[in-house]
Structure formats: C-alpha cells, structure tokens
Design brief:
Blueprint (H helix, E strand, L loop, with lengths): L1 H16 L4 E8 L2 E7 L5 E5 L6 E6 L2 E7 L5 E6 L6 E8 L3 E9 L4 H9 L9 H14 L6 E10 L6 H4 L6 H14 L1 E2 L2 E9 L8 H10 L7 E3 L3 H18 L1 E10 L6 E5 L11 E7 L4 E8 L1 E2 L5 E6 L2 E11 L12 E5 L7 E2 L5 H4 E7 L1 E9 L8 H16 L14 E4 L6 E4 L8 E7 L7 E7 L3 E4 L5 E10 L2 E2 L9 E2 L6 E4 L2 E8 L2 E5 L12 E5 L2 E4 L5 H8 L18 H15 L3 E2 L3 H8 L16 H4 L31 E7 L8 E2 L10 E4 L16 E3 L8 E2 L3 E2 L5
Parallel strand pairs: 7-23, 9-11, 9-23, 11-12, 35-39, 38-42
Antiparallel strand pairs: 1-2, 1-6, 3-4, 4-5, 7-8, 10-11, 13-19, 13-22, 14-15, 14-20, 15-16, 16-18, 17-19, 18-19, 20-21, 24-25, 25-28, 26-27, 26-29, 29-30, 29-31, 32-33, 33-36, 34-35, 36-43, 37-43, 38-40, 40-41
Helix pairs in contact: 2-9, 3-5, 7-9
C-alpha cells in the first residue's frame, strides 16, 4: 500500500508537470496490462477508502475518470511520446505444454523481452495446436487496448497435427469439433470493432501422413484461404513471416496529403492522380465535385486507395484552395502511397474533357505526413521436437519478425529488375524498353550507355509502368533499369541486348572502310511485269515498310576489311566483289554484324525491285534510273568484258548506283513463281533449290538488266558475274 501511494504521488506530480510529453498510463497486475489511460484523460491520481477497501482514483480536473481496487494494481507505467505504444504483442508457444508471454507493448525498447522469450522456448513432444490458438484468442479478448488499432492479427506456425488438445479441454470429443469451434471464433472475433486477421503458416513435418488434415488445419486457422500458407522450406517460412510483418505495418500506416490548387467553378470535377497518369489510365486517384459555397469537395471517391471521408473541407487563400485528404492507405497494402508523381486535373460541369493543371507539381503544391495506428499481434508457435534442427531457424525468423514490427518500418528489399529487353520500332526508329515488375517498387529509373561496359547515364526516372520509350536513342544503345521505392533504390539490372539505330545519314564503317546505306521510304508498288517473261508474272501489289539498302554494291575493299581475303577475279578496291556464292555472302554478313553491331542482311527480292524502280520517287523507267541503259549500267555493250568501279554511272531516283548491270546481285529469297495476292513485307518461299539473283551484269544484255528481270542460282554457285549489296531493316540484335 505504501508503495502504491508513493508511486501515485510521483505520477501525479509527473502528470501535472509533463503533460505534453506523456501519452499513456498502463496499469499492470500479475505482469499483464489490465487497463490503460491516455494522459489527455488523466491529470491526477489518488487513493481513497478504508483499509479493507482501498481504491485508486483517476481524475481529469475535478472529474473522476475511473476507480480501481488497490488489490488489482501492481504497478503503473508511463510511456512518453517517443515510446508511444503503437504495437501490442503476445506469444503462445506450444508442445505438450503452453508457454505464454502476456500481451504487452512492443517497441524498440521492449523488443528484446519478446526475443528473449522466443529464444528460451523449450522443445518437447506433443502439439497442442487447437488449445494454443484457443488460448491466444482468449488473450486478445481479455486485453483492454488503449489506442486506436489499425489491425488485430493472429499468426500461427505449426509443423504437425494436433496431439492432446482434447485432453486439455474436455468440452470437445473430436479434433474436428475443436477445430470447428476455434475456426468459428476466428471468424466471429472483433477487437475494438476490428475483425481478426488470422494468418496460418505450416511446414509439414516428416511424421505427418495425413496431408489433407494438415492443410485443412492451416485453412481453418486462417481468416481466409489466401492467408494460409503451406511452406516448402524454412526459407519460405522466413519469407512469409517478412511479408506478414510488412503487411501489418502497412495496414497500421496512414498518410495525409495536402494539396494546393487554383479555385475552379461550382460543380467542377477535381481529380488528383497519384501515379502520374491521366484520370482515364490511373490506377490510384482521388476524385470529387467542387462546391463553391463552402469550398468543399463532395462525393469524394478513392480508387486504388482507401480514404476517410466522402466530403473534404477546403480552405481558401486568395484564388487558391487547399484540401487535406487524411487516413489514406493503399488498397493492396503494398507499402506507402507514392507522392512524387501527383498530377491534378479539372473537368467543368458542362464538359467531358479533363484539363491537366500544368503548373501543379508534387514538390511545390503538396505536403505529405505519415502517421501510425496501433496493431495487436499474438504469435502462436509450434515448439515440438519434430522440428528438429530447424527449430533454431524458426526462433531466429520469429525474432526477426518481432524486430521488424517493433521498428514499425517495413524492411523492404528491392530486387533489380530482370528480363530487360529493348526493341527498335521499324517505322519511328524509337526504342521500346521493357522489364519485369519488381515487388514493392514504386517507380523505375532507366539508364543508357553506348557500350555494355561503359558509363550508364540516367535518361528517365519516376517511370510508373514497366516500359519506357526512348524517343531520342543514340547510334548504339544498351539499357539498365533500377527499381525505386520506400526510400530504397535497387541495384541496376543486367544490361539489355544492344540495339543499334541506323545512322540518319546512312554512313557506316567496318575496320576503317566506310560505306553508305540509302534509306528507302516504304510504300506500295506493282511488282513484276506483263511482258513475255513468265516468271515476272502475275503483277501483284506489294507493300513495304521503311528499310535501308546499299548505295553501291559491296566493294572488294569492304570485303577485304571484313574477311581478310579477296575472292574476286577482277581486282580493284572500288570494284564490286564477285565470285561469291549466296552462302559466302551470309558468312560475310555475319562477320560484318559482329564488327558493327548492326543487323545487315541481303535485301528481299521485293525490297531489291522497289529500290531499283526508285521507290516512292519512281519515274517508271525500264532500267534502274533511266530508259537508256548505257547511262546507268555497265553491261555487255559497254563493259569491255569486265566489271567497273561502283558509282561511275548515273544513280537512280533514290541515289542508288549499279542496280542495273555491273554484277548480278544475290537476294535473300528462295526462287519460286509469283502469287497474284497482295503482300506486305514478303520474304519469299520458306524453302527451295535456288536463291534469287537480280540486276544483270557486265556480260549480260539489256533484257537481263531490266528492274523486273529475275534470275536464280544454287546457293553454292559463284562466278565473276555475281556479287551483292546490303540491306538493313533496323538495328535490333
């Protein structure tokens, strides 16, 4: 009695002098908190009554708040604001006995008590699973929680089936009866008006043969099936406990966002998107109708988040309005609401179009505060011998769980994004970069470099989706991506594949030898002729996308630079390479692509003919660039029986040389008859015996040098009349 009186004197003095600092008074009996008072409700305490009926009285001013018998009070503890009891925890360990840590405040200063309790749990035979869960529910029902709770949680871990609960509670005659009763309690329980969220986690022991019963236990001891987990390993147990801890913390976290915007007209719709998207595309927004009479937002709706009120009162300062949206949480419970990409939109009452407020920014026009409500957690832990050497792992993982919750900070880890891909759009020459989503990421940053081992420069940040378009790529492009969220930044991803953009001027280089590609703007043309040559018929429509084609035939200088040898019969650096088969061309192209990082190839037959005819600039000439063959071609009448240097005759409408005469040019396609149907970007037959040659050569007459003329040879065929030119669709590797 003397001890209580002395304690009350000290507490009363402390309360009167330090009210602003003190938050709660916890009343203890037999080591358990029986009652808690907020210090905003109590400013003095005294003892009254006679020796046989002493009472501890709690006052606020002259008003009696509550009275407790002295015999029911062992001690009173005071918590300052920096010890605000946000989380309450109890623990029940079970095997053939129960080991109970009563519900008490869990904070950074008290976490060691809970961890020590877990570390001293003994291993024994037996599994009082239902009886332990029943006891944990009793703890939750009996405890008087003083603070507003955000969640009430039960987390059960077991590795076996129930053994002995019926011995401890004779009210039930079968395991199923007891399980049904406990399951019903879980469904019906409410603590301070909140439903119980029950998680069950099982790692089936080797002695469990009734798999269905084991899984049924997990499902029935959880508040919903998605909260029941049968783990395949202790590592999965650890991961699941981390997820549960983060979920509890997230549910107990509230955010308030204050936004300042210019005033608008009565009845206008106001929308704040929190993910940087438009209202139509946003997955997370706040929307309401503005009421000019009292500057409020009415009929406020929340999408992707939860909010407290459907009416939010605004304040006016000059022409500006300020709204505060309180009690916000993500619906998915996945961490904090992002606040760096907020955009604001208006839509007049008479309009169907949203207008973005281009002057609004998250940094200048919003403020965010984060608060926490209380959480109640009871852990139910299997301590049976069947866990064997994994028992110590379980203890360690539970201690980590306790520390995580005590710190009231979800310990998020952000993995580096994987499967980063980059693809070039054939039409726009923009690069689309994509990657897999990362758990807990709120946004992504993209980095680019001209080489896989070079310095990567940030080119985009705050990307809310898992893709981004590089509208101004470099010639050579590698990409890395990192995830951002909860104050963390992941490591960069593995480098993407190289994507090379064709030079705008078409200039390329291989081992010091430059060569030029001409861009051919896509279009539709009539391929073939109605002449006497059967294989040039029927005439048919072909539509092609943009591509590049060699300004000249491949020269001996370029071949030598790539291959280190020269197979040509007629020697000269600027002469077209000849005496090369279709297969030889493929070998050259493979090595050229390795040198340049490009995706060179032979032109398709359709691409060759479209370019030879002048593409969209075509003037309908018979030969490539003229109706007079001698102006544009080296052929049998003027060649003196040999090849000539490229680009010494006139070019065609696109500035391309020698597509008539000089050397036959291999195309990519297998040779076959034409189809009459219209085609888009055709690549020829899927198989065949011969590859297509086009353009005629120095030893052929005018008929063979027509742009529509076709020839063919075996892929292994080579002679001094056959060469080739390059094509390039895009720079994607």
């Amino acid at each position: 009695m003397k001890k209580i009186a002395t304690t009350l004197l000290i507490l009363t003095t402390f309360l009167l002098q330090g009210m602003a600092q003190v938050k709660y008074l916890d009343i203890y009996q037999n080591g358990r908190i029986t009652r808690t008072f907020a210090t905003t409700d109590v400013d003095s305490i005294n003892v009254s009554g006679n020796v046989s009926n002493r009472m501890v009285n709690f006052f606020r001013g002259a008003n009696l708040v509550n009275s407790l018998a002295v015999t029911s009070v062992d001690s009173i503890k005071v918590f300052r604001s920096n010890e605000e009891p946000l989380v309450y925890m109890g623990i029940v360990g079970f095997n053939q006995d129960l080991y109970t840590k009563p519900i008490d405040v869990l904070a950074t200063s008290t976490a060691s008590q809970f961890k020590t309790f877990v570390s001293t749990l003994p291993r024994k035979d037996g599994t009082l699973l239902y009886y332990a869960v029943d006891d944990a529910l009793d703890m939750l029902e009996a405890y008087s929680f003083p603070t507003v709770l955000g969640s009430v949680n039960l987390v059960t871990f077991t590795d076996g089936l129930d053994q002995g609960s019926l011995m401890m509670n004779p009210a039930y005659t079968t395991d199923q009866q007891y399980l049904n009763s406990v399951s019903q309690r879980i469904s019906d329980m409410k603590v301070r008006g909140l439903p119980l969220t029950a998680y069950s986690l099982g790692l089936r022991g080797s002695d469990v043969t009734d798999y269905l019963m084991f899984r049924n236990n997990l499902i029935r001891l959880a508040s919903s099936s998605d909260k029941a987990t049968e783990a395949g390993s202790m590592a999965e147990v650890q991961s699941r406990l981390q997820e549960i801890a983060d979920r509890i913390i997230s549910i107990s976290t509230r955010q308030s966002i204050t936004a300042k915007i210019p005033g608008t007209s009565n009845g206008a719709q106001i929308c704040f998107t929190l993910d940087g998207e438009t209202p139509a595309n946003s997955s997370m927004y706040i929307m309401g109708t503005f009421n000019l009479s009292d500057f409020s937002l009415r009929n406020v709706t929340y999408h992707g988040i939860r909010g407290e009120s459907s009416v939010v009162q605004g304040t006016r300062e000059g022409i500006f309005l300020t709204f505060t949206f309180s009690g916000l949480q993500r619906e998915d419970g996945n961490g904090l609401i992002p606040t760096t990409q907020i955009r604001q939109y208006n839509k007049a009452a008479t309009s169907s179009t949203w207008q973005v407020n281009s002057e609004f920014s998250s940094a200048n026009n919003t403020q965010t505060t984060t608060t926490h409500t209380g959480a109640a957690i009871v852990l139910v832990l299997d301590c049976s011998n069947s866990l064997g050497t994994q028992f110590s792992n379980m203890q360690g993982y539970v201690q980590d769980f306790i520390g995580r919750v005590a710190n009231n900070t979800a310990s998020y880890t952000l993995a580096a994004p994987d499967n980063v891909t980059a693809a070039l759009d054939d039409e726009s020459f923009q690069i689309s970069v994509c990657w897999n989503a990362v758990k807990h990421a709120e946004s992504y940053d993209v980095y680019r470099s001209s080489s896989s081992t070079g310095n990567f420069e940030k080119v985009a940040e705050g990307i809310m989706s898992t893709s981004w378009t590089d509208e101004q790529p470099q010639y050579s492009n590698f990409y890395k991506v990192c995830a951002v969220g909860h104050g963390l930044t992941s490591k960069m991803s593995v480098v993407s594949a190289r994507v090379v953009i064709p030079s705008l001027d078409g200039n390329f280089d291989a081992n010091g030898v430059s060569f030029k590609m001409i861009k051919v703007t896509g279009g539709t043309f009539q391929m073939g002729t109605k002449g006497s040559e059967v294989d040039e018929q029927p005439v048919h429509n072909v539509t092609l996308s943009d591509y590049y084609i060699g300004k000249t035939e491949v020269t001996q200088e370029l071949w030598q630079a790539v291959m280190g040898s020269n197979p040509s019969n007629f020697k000269g650096d600027n002469l077209p390479v000849e005496s090369v088969s279709w297969n030889d061309c493929q070998t050259f192209i493979t090595k050229l692509n390795e040198l340049t990082g490009q995706n060179f190839r032979l032109p398709t037959e359709a691409e060759w003919e479209f370019a030879a005819k002048g593409g969209t600039q075509s003037k309908g000439y018979t030969y490539s660039g003229s109706n007079t063959l001698g102006d544009v071609a080296w052929y049998t009448s003027n060649s003196s029986d040999k090849t000539h240097e490229v680009a010494t005759k006139a070019p065609n409408e696109l500035g391309i040389y020698d597509m008539s005469g000089n050397v036959w040019e291999w195309c990519q396609d297998w040779y076959d008859s034409y189809s009459s149907s219209s085609q888009t970007n055709p690549t020829g037959p899927s198989s065949g015996y011969y590859r297509v040659n086009r353009g005629g050569s120095w030893s052929y007459n005018a008929t063979n040098c027509r742009t529509a003329n076709r020839s063919h040879n075996s892929p292994t065929y080579s002679n001094n009349r056959a060469g080739f030119r390059l094509a390039l669709k895009n720079g994607k590797i």
